[in-house]
TrEMBL record:
<keyword id="KW-0131">Cell cycle</keyword>
<dbReference type="InterPro" id="IPR044068">
    <property type="entry name" value="CB"/>
</dbReference>
<dbReference type="GO" id="GO:0003677">
    <property type="term" value="F:DNA binding"/>
</dbReference>
<dbReference type="Pfam" id="PF00589">
    <property type="entry name" value="Phage_integrase"/>
</dbReference>
<dbReference type="GO" id="GO:0007059">
    <property type="term" value="P:chromosome segregation"/>
</dbReference>
<comment type="subunit">
    <text>Forms a cyclic heterotetrameric complex composed of two molecules of XerC and two molecules of XerD.</text>
</comment>
<dbReference type="GO" id="GO:0005737">
    <property type="term" value="C:cytoplasm"/>
</dbReference>
<keyword id="KW-0963">Cytoplasm</keyword>
<keyword id="KW-0238">DNA-binding</keyword>
<comment type="function">
    <text>Site-specific tyrosine recombinase, which acts by catalyzing the cutting and rejoining of the recombining DNA molecules. The XerC-XerD complex is essential to convert dimers of the bacterial chromosome into monomers to permit their segregation at cell division. It also contributes to the segregational stability of plasmids.</text>
</comment>
<keyword id="KW-0159">Chromosome partition</keyword>
<protein>
    <recommendedName>
        <fullName>Tyrosine recombinase XerC</fullName>
    </recommendedName>
</protein>
<dbReference type="Pfam" id="PF02899">
    <property type="entry name" value="Phage_int_SAM_1"/>
</dbReference>
<feature type="domain" description="Core-binding (CB)">
    <location>
        <begin position="1"/>
        <end position="79"/>
    </location>
</feature>
<dbReference type="GO" id="GO:0051301">
    <property type="term" value="P:cell division"/>
</dbReference>
<dbReference type="InterPro" id="IPR013762">
    <property type="entry name" value="Integrase-like_cat_sf"/>
</dbReference>
<feature type="active site">
    <location>
        <position position="235"/>
    </location>
</feature>
Amino acid sequence: MARERRASQHTVFAYARDVAAFTRFLQDYRGEEPSVGMLGSLSTAEFRAYVSARSRTGLARTSTARGLSSLRNLYRWLDREGIVSNPALDALRTPKIPKAVPKAMTESEAMETLEAARTLYEDPWLARRDMALFTLLYGCGLRLGEALALNRGDVPKGSVLRILGKGRKERLVPVLPVVRSALEEYLRLCPVQSTDPTLPLFIGARGGRLNPGVVQRQMRKVREHLGLSEQATPHALRHSFATHLLANGGDLRTIQELLGHASLSTTQRYTRVDADGLARLHARTHPRARIDTEPEPTDVK
């Protein structure tokens, strides 16, 4: 997965945990040490028993679905390498996963979040760091991991930022002047002054690359300060970026490219968030709607 699919380290670890959980289940269920031969002899009923066992532990359907995906990837690899083959898993259906609706902030909440981010630290450079990071997430629609992976050499000199996203896929994201300004102000105040392009862009108080946990903690403080719901997270800034673009007339294909989604169906989730905005856009732009709303001609005597 890491070499061929370019999966992230987090994804690889998650799949490894799933396979480990499966082998532990087999040891308890069969009462013997799992082996390659056992993997080839498992029946569909035994795979189904594994799914049921995971469900009884209270795991969400998404976790169960990922567990099955991990097993299918493992069996495909075993079959491709000529180690073992077992078609029994193919007869098992993946649990239906409810489609999650992205949790976006309102435009005013997003702007208040950016402003509040620079008021929660007494040290000016830390305050400017958080404001620059949150402005980047909201202004460019980045994932938190993408933003924290940036180095000094990645800071855009012009109006475009090159991002290495999921699956190590590159995309170009336009950078607004307000985003460039926030980054420049943070770098001006940053105590680590260096031209080394390999240094992390966002650093912690001790000088290392900024930890995601620190960002999550700061967002919790912002939530409490502004009285926002628990749905206001760093990732919600990315959702807000897409939702607000769509509400203001952005098209799905462009938003898909900006977010780095491999599938348009992933981007289409945002249409359920802003159904009212889409209705207004439809009424404003559709030729039939414009004709129907034109005033009736009056008789001239």
